[in-house]
Amino acid sequence: MAAFSSVPPAQGAPLPERASEYLALSFGDAARTAAAAWLGQGTPAARRRHITAAEADAGALAALASHLAGAAVGLRVLLAGTQSQVYRAAAAAKEAGLIEEELSLAVIEEAVIGDSAKHVYCPHCGTTTPSREPIGATPLCGGCRRRLEIYPHFSRRTASYLGFMADAEKPLPPSSSPESASPEPEAVR
Ligand SMILES: [Zn+2]
């Protein structure tokens, strides 16, 4: 798996050298502080910009894309926010042509942000449902109302966790008797 360069959100994360311009995009207050610290370092030769947004929504991602469209070679970008915000923005940035070497990520712990939700993707109806529950929990799908289990698989492309139908048949261990595979009505006497 290709890795983004990740920087700790604390102050002191190094600015990449030899950039023509620095751009930070931050989501929420904690991320804004981290991004401002990142931008505040080093020599003031290169231009610095900071886009702040509350959420990694369509408006924020469009602002990022339009900035990248007009950017010169040598731009270095920092994305700061929760994991899902940062990966959503990273996906948008790569779609706009940014390569991983130009991108730094500062993932702020959700506990620090406080109000951030996971996004659980439903493979049955395609709805993405926000949930504050932990991995392994079973929130209801906002689309089809099936109960989904939050599976520990995070998609960077869609910035969401994969949900499984929680009350569907569970994968059977190999030693299971074959009759559970083809269920027959069972007589209760
Ligand atoms: Zn669904």
From TrEMBL:
Coiled-coil intervals: none
Chain spans, region Disordered: 168-189
InterPro entries in the cross-refs: DmmA-like_C
Name of this protein: Dimethylamine monooxygenase subunit DmmA-like C-terminal domain-containing protein
Origin: domain of life: Bacteria
Ranges of compositional bias, category Low complexity: 177-189
Organism in which the protein naturally occurs: Arthrobacter ginkgonis
NCBIfam families documented for this protein: mono_DmmA_fam
Residues in Dimethylamine monooxygenase subunit DmmA-like C-terminal domain copies: 119-163
Pfam families: DmmA-like_C (PF22289)
